[in-house]
Amino acid sequence: MNLDFSWMAWTWPTAAFFGTVFLLLCGMAAWEYASPGGNPRVGVLRFETTRGDR
User: What is the count of structural domains for the chain?
Assistant: First the structure.
């Protein structure tokens, strides 16, 4: 598998942006794993929805 990233101009700001987004997603996934929170809620239309429904 050859990972050739020459098609994009990888400058430090670009790499920092994508790295930050990746780290934030990993952090949110770890937070959800450690403290799950998918309790049903009643919305404006008065029926219960869970996190996957919203």
Answer: 1
Paired strand residues for 48: 42
pLDDT band at 54 (very low <50, low <70, confident <90, very high): low
Q: How many CB atoms within 10 Å of residue 43?
A: 10
Tens digit of each residue's pLDDT (9 = 90 or more) over 7-30:
878 888 998 999 999 999 999 999
Measured in degrees and rounded to the nearest 5, phi and psi for residue 40 equal: -65, 145
29 lies in some domain: yes
49, 40 contact by CB (below 8 A): yes
Angstrom distance (rounded) from CA 34 to CA 2: 35
Nearest to 53 by CA among 45, 37, 41, 36: 41
